[in-house]
Amino acid sequence: MRKNMSQNWKSAIFYILIPLLLIGSIFLFSAQSKNTTAKNYSEVVNLFRNNQVTQYELDLSSGNLTYKLVGDGENTVNRYTVPSVSYFLDDISDYVNDYNDANPDNQIVYNYKKGSSNSWWMSMLPTFIFTIIIIVMFVWLMRRMSSSIGNETNRTLGFGRIKSKTQSGEDSDKKFEDVAGCDEEKAELAELVDFLKNGEKYTQLGARIPKGVLLVGPPGTGKTLLAKAVAGEAGAPFLSISGSDFVEMYVGVGASRVRDLFEQAKKKSPCIVFIDEIDAVGRHRGTGMGGGNDEREQTLNQLLVEMDGFGSNSGVIVIAATNRPDVLDPALLRPGRFDRQITVNRPDKQGREDILKVHAKGKPLGPDVDLKEVAKDTIGFTGADLENLMNEAALLAVRRNKKAISYQDIVDATSRVELGTEKKSHKYSEKAKKLTAYHEAGHAVASYYVEGHDPVREISIVPRGLGAGGYTWYTPQEENYNSRNDMLNDLISMFGGRVAEAVALDDISTGASNDLQRATEIVRDMVVKYGMSDDLGPVVYDSGNGEVFLGKDYGHVNNYSEQTSARIDSEVEKIMREAYSKTMSILKEHYDKLELVAETLIKKEKISGEEFENLMKNGTLEVEAVEASTEELTQEQTETENG
Ligand code: ADP
Ligand code: MG
Ligand code: ZN
C-alpha cells in the first residue's frame, strides 16, 4: 500500500507538472508578442504626429514603448512594442522636436533607455523552459527504458524498489498470536526474537547468533506470516524481498540488489531480512542452460558473499522461505549461512481448528457451526486454504442473504475451494449423462470394496472446475503412509471409472484419460523411484523430481541399460494390468451396486458420502423407509430398461 502511494504521488506530480510548464511557457510566448493596446504602428505614429502624446519612454533594444496621451490620468500607461526602433525614431523625432521647439513650456517628456535586463530575460525564458522540459522528459524516458539495467543511476531506482517494500518493525503488526497452530515452529523462532532483543546476552557468553534461518514448507502454510511475526514480536525492522525480484533480464541487477539490501540492513540492525521464494535465486549453480543462469549465479554468489560479510553478531538475521529445499545450492545450507532449517508443515486437526478460529474473527457464525467439525473435514488444507475457505463461506452467506455463516455455507465453501465452482448450466445428452454416472459410480463402488481406502465424501455428475465430467470426492485420512498397498488400492479406485464404462456400457470413453495418466505416474514411481516392484527389486533407477529444472536434468542420461528400460516398461504394464483386472472382477461381482449407484446418480445428480454408505449397505439412500424406496427404485429401473 505504502509503496504504491509514494510511487503514485511521484508520477502524479510528474504528469501534472509537465502540462503546467507547457501551458505556462505558451502563455509567456503569447504574452510577449501581444500588443497590450490593440493599436497598429501607423495609429501610434499618428498619435505623435497629431501631438496627442505628452510623455513617452522607449526601450532602444526591445522596442518597448510606454506613453501618455493628452487627457490621460496620472496612472494610465499605454504600451506598444515598435517593430523597428530606428524607423520609429525616424518617423517621430522630427515631430517631437518641432513640438518641443514650438511649446517650450509644455514640452513632451521623453526618455530613451538602453535594453533592460528584465526584457532580455523575458524573451529568453520560454526557450529556457522548453529546453528544460525536453531534457527532463528525455532523462525520464531513458530511466524508464533502462529501469532494469544495472548501471549506477539505475541502482537507485532498483534500490527504491527494495526500500519501498521495506517495513519498519512498527509496521509489521503481526504477532505470534496471529499465527495459529504452528507451536513448535513458533517455539524455535522465539529464540530468534530473543537474539534480536537481547543480543548482548548471547555475545557475552561467546555464542554465535545464527545468521540465517530457512523456513521450509508447502505454499500457504504461513512461512511469510511467521517471518513477519518474528519481526513484530522483536519490534525489529522487517526488510523483505522476493527471490524473483532478484532475477532480472539483465545481468548484474540481482547482485547489486543483494548488495543494496544488505547495506540497508546493516544500517538498520538489529533487523530481519526476509527473502521469500529463495529457490528462485538459490538453485544449484553450474547447471547452465540459457543466459539467465549467469545472472542467477552472480546473484547467488553475491548473496553468499554478503552473508559471510557481516559478522555473526551484527544483529542482522536473514530469514528465507522456500517450498523447494531440494533444489537449493548446498553452499546456502552450510553453517554460517542458513544453518537452521525450520519445517513448516500443514496443520493437524487441532492446528486447523486454531487457524479457523483466527480467521473466523469478525465473521458472525451461526449456532450450528462447530469449527471442530470443519477442521475434521479439511484434512490437507493449509492456513491459506482455511483463510480462503472462511472467506468463501462468508461470501456464500452474503449471497444467500443470511445474517450469519451457517454450517452448510462452510460445507459448500469447502467443496468450492477443493473442486471449483459447480457448472450447473452444463447440459448433458442422455447418453453422456449415463456414461458419466457409470464412470463415477465405478470409482466409488470400486473404492468401497478396497480395504483401507479413503471413504467417499461426495459423488456428482455435475461438473466442477476445469474437468468436463463429474467427480468422486474422497475424504482423505489424517495419516497417509503411502505404502505399496495404499498405492495399489488407489489404482483400483482410479481404474473404477474406466472399468465401469467397459462393464456396463460395453464401450470406453476418453473421460478416463486423466485417471489413467495419474495411475501410470504412480506405478512408474513405484517401480523406478521407490523400488517396489517384484521383478526389478529394491533399486532406485530415477531419483529425479521428474522436472527439468535449469538444465540439471536436461540431456539427462539414464543410468540404466536399454534392457532395464524395457524391464521397467513391462513391469509398469504388468502392475497396471493386474490392477485393472482386479478392478474388473470387483465391479463384475458387485454389478448390482454399480447399477444402483449409477441410476441413483442419473436421478439425483449428486450423492453424499452418507447416502452412498446407505446405498451400499441397505440399497437405499436413507436408513429408514427401506422398502418403499427400493420398490420405487426397482420400478424406475425397469422403466429405463424398457425405454
Ligand atoms: P506462505 O508464505 O507459507 O506461502 P503465507 O504466510 O503467505 O504462506 O500465508 C498466507 C495466508 O494464509 C496468511 O496471510 C494467513 O492469512 C493464512 N495463514 C497461513 N498460515 C496460517 C496460520 N498458521 N495461522 C493463521 N493464518 C495463517
Ligand atoms: Mg510466502
Ligand atoms: Zn474418472
Characteristics:
binds magnesium ion; binds adenosine-5'-diphosphate; four-stranded mixed β-sheet; disordered C terminus; 643 residues; disordered N terminus; binds zinc ion; five-stranded parallel β-sheet; alpha/beta; 9% strand; 12 strands; 22 helices
Describe the structure.
With 643 residues, the chain is an alpha/beta fold. The chain contains 22 helices and twelve strands. The strands form three sheets. It has a five-stranded parallel β-sheet with strand order 6-7-8-5-9. Strand 1 (53-59) and strand 2 (64-69) form a beta hairpin. The structure holds adenosine-5'-diphosphate, magnesium ion and zinc ion (ZN). Magnesium ion is lined by residues 223-224, 276, 321.
Please report which band the strand proportion falls in: under 5%, 5-15%, 15-25%, 25-35%, 35-45% or over 45%.
5-15%
The largest β sheet comes out as:
5 strands, parallel
Arithmetic mean pLDDT = 80
Contiguous low-pLDDT stretches (5 residues minimum) are 1-5, 148-170, 546-553, 625-643
Shape: elongated
What is the topology?
Blueprint: H1 2-33, H2 41-49, E1 53-59, E2 64-69, E3 78-81, H3 85-102, E4 109-113, H4 117-145, H5 152-165, H6 183-197, H7 199-204, E5 212-216, H8 223-234, E6 238-242, H9 243-246, H10 253-268, E7 271-276, H11 292-309, E8 316-322, E9 340-343, H12 349-360, H13 371-377, H14 383-399, H15 407-419, H16 430-448, E10 456-460, E11 471-474, H17 484-505, H18 513-528, H19 562-589, H20 591-604, E12 606-608, H21 609-618, H22 626-642
Parallel strand pairs: 1-4, 5-8, 5-9, 6-7, 7-8
Antiparallel strand pairs: 1-2, 2-3, 10-11, 10-12
Helix pairs in contact: 1-4, 5-10, 6-8, 10-11, 12-13, 12-14, 14-15, 16-17, 16-20, 17-18, 17-19, 18-19, 19-20
The structure holds adenosine-5'-diphosphate, magnesium ion (MG) and zinc ion.
